[in-house]
Amino acid sequence: MTVPLLSVEKLEVVYHRAITAVQGISLSVKPGQIVAVLGNNGAGKTTTLRAVSGFLGLDDARVTEGNIVFKGMRIENRRPDKITHLGLVLVPERDKVFPNLTVAENLAAPVAHRAGRAERRRREALVYEFFPQLAALKGRIAGLLSGGERQMLALGSALVGSPELLLIDELSLGLAPVAVESLMRRLVEIRDGLGLSILLVEQNASIALEIADYGYVLENGRLVLDGDPKRLLQHQDIREFYLGQTTSGERKSYRAVKQYRRSRRWYG
Amino acid sequence: MQLGVNIIVLAAIYALIACGYVLIYRVSRVLNLAHGELMMLGSYLLLATASTFTGHPLVAIAVALVLSLCVGALVYLFLMRKMAGEMVLAAVLTTIALGILLRGVMVIVWSAQQQYPGQALGVVNPAIALPGGARISTMAALLVLATAVIYGALFAFLRFSRWGVRMRAAGQNPLLAAQRGINLHAIYALAWGLSTLTGSIAGMLISLDSGLTGTMVLIGLKAFPAALVGGLDSLVGALFGALIVAAAEISLIHYVDPLLSDVVPFLVLIVMLIIRPWGLFGTREELDRV
Ligand SMILES: Nc1ncnc2c1ncn2[C@@H]1O[C@H](COP(=O)(O)OP(=O)(O)O)[C@@H](O)[C@H]1O
Ligand SMILES: [Mg+2]
Question: What is the ipTM of this complex?
Answer without folding.
Answer: 0.85
